[in-house]
Amino acid sequence: MPGRVEIRFYEELNDFLTPARRKVTFEHAFRQSGSIKDMIEALGVPHTEVDLILVNGRSVDFDYLIGDGDRISVYPMFESMDIAPVTRLRPVPLRTTRFVLDTHLGRLAAYLRLFGFDTLYRNDYDDPTLAAISAAERRILLTRDRQLLMRKQVTHGYFVRETQPRRQLIEVLRRFDLRATQRPFTRCMHCNGEISAVSKDKVRAHLLPRTERWYQEFWRCGQCGKIYWKGTHFRHLQALVASSH
Q1: CA 26 to CA 224: how far, in whole Å?
Q2: How many CA atoms, within 13 angstroms, populate the side-chain half-sphere of residue 157?
Q3: C-alpha–C-alpha distance, residues 223 and 128, integer Å
Q4: What digits encode the pLDDT tens for the residues 102-144?
Q5: CA dist., res. 220 & res. 199, Å (int)
Q6: Nearest residue to 141 (alpha-carbon basis) of 61, 43, 49, 10
Q7: Looking at residue 87, what is its pLDDT?
Q8: Please, what's the b/e burial string for 194-213 (b: 16 or more CB within 10 A of its CB; e: otherwise)?
Q9: Which pick of 28, 42, 54, 210 has the fewest CB atoms within 10 Å?
């Protein structure tokens, strides 16, 4: 049965709406009743971004069937509310913060690894693979593709707003409150493996003459074997870490 609802989206959920629908209550017509999850995603907002839905002042879950005349308010994660009881729609936060990133976020993946976060990335992951990894390994899926976040299989995901990698890094650190848990220079930026100190004698055969002559401390990735030392590139990365605080 057709009908109409009044709906409003709050805070950062407005990023997904057309300008005329941002930060205002608007009418939305439907041909037949369906789940509120389907309606919200049809308007462009991925379900992974939603934490609370109120219909006529009462909290509901994603399976709620919309009805004619419903008044709907949709809130993002961490929106402060003084309403009880409520149905929180987001799953329990993950015990360990781990990520999987889509093919457009390669530089962000490297930066997250630099900060010590377990981050999976390959430029040949397709959407079904990304969704499957996120669900099976309980990883937060970071993407610039809102359609990917609308896959039912995805329970923990986030749409990255910024387009410049360093700004994306700051956005993610703030969004997931990661500053207290970061461990810079403990993961390989290339493969995500853990790195540890290694004696110069054990890597000497792999060093260029200039590197062997000028540097005494080295680290090696336990997964891919890449060797690290505190050269010019390290100082640039160190400055990046410092600037994020």
Answers
A1: 54
A2: 29
A3: 26
A4: 999 999 999 999 999 999 999 999 999 999 999 999 999 999 9
A5: 10
A6: 49
A7: 59
A8: ebeebeeeebeeeeeeeebe
A9: 210
What crossing angle do the helices spanning 106-114 and 232-243 adopt, rounded to 10°?
Answer: 90
Residue 219, pLDDT > 60, answer yes
- Pairwise CA distance, residues 158 & 172, whole Å: 9
Let me know: does 105 contact 140? Beta carbons within 8 Å. no
Assigned token pair, 243: 């600037």
Encoded tokens for 224: 């891919």
**Domain parsing of the chain, residue ranges:** 3-76, 99-175, 195-243
Indicate the class that CATH gives domain 3-76: alpha beta
Integer angstrom CA distances of residue 95 from 46, 139, 178: 23, 10, 13
